[in-house]
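Human: If only I could read backbone structure tokens as easily as an amino acid sequence. Underneath my words sits a plain record pairing an amino acid chain with its backbone structure tokens. Take your time, and here it is.
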Amino acid sequence: MQSGSKILAGVLVAVSLLAGCQSVPKDQRDPRDPFESVNRSIYKFNDAVDRAVMRPTARAYRTVVPQFVRNSVGNFFSNINDVRVVLNNTLQGKFTTAYADFGRIMINSTLGIVGLFDIASEAGIEKHNEDFGQTLGWYGMNDGPYIMLPLFGPSTVRDTLGFGVDYLTDPITYVDPSSAQNAMSGTRFVQRRADLLDASNVLKTTLDPYQFMRDAYLQRRRNLVYDGNPPPDKDDAPLKPDSVPLPKEPMQ
């Protein structure tokens, strides 16, 4: 525990030092991101850690481990996550969907050999994505300010509150001994990072990777809360026809 506290303290110190290095003018701030100056500093810290440790590890994993094995690893952790999906769909009153998710777990845990093979999807049973942050949103809780968490990445106040419940409802949390739990958590993290390698390459092509990540995250979370059918944003004013700039070149 002491070593973990020292690491966390070191992260907070590094972030606090970076926070004073950059400020965003008030007239350029996004109202969804009132802590943008600090968030950008944390983003730089996370990116530095990712470049030094996470990305090389994920690349090595993808190079050494065959594709079919990586697919099975991803399926295994996806099957575990379906336990949390069932719970949150139930909390949201989506009982039919929760029943289908439970069926996915039963099929993949048995015919799919503890989830190594996604037999349920092949059988046409749709996979869903639910967590407690989405459940809070379903009950009407707003996103709150956008925040960039050290090491964990983009979030909002609402989603950060949901992390605690997500942790408690994650079956891996209860794996014993702790060495096995840590091994499973580490493998899952490397698998997820390997899956995002191509997406991180897209960030390199953007003028402002921080803004791109923020906007993509907020849009995705909004779509998830409303199951892909979000209502019109009240802050989005309709554009007048003469206010829409014409493209200089045809769109491709």
Notes: The chain has one domain: 33-227. Residues 33-227 form one domain.
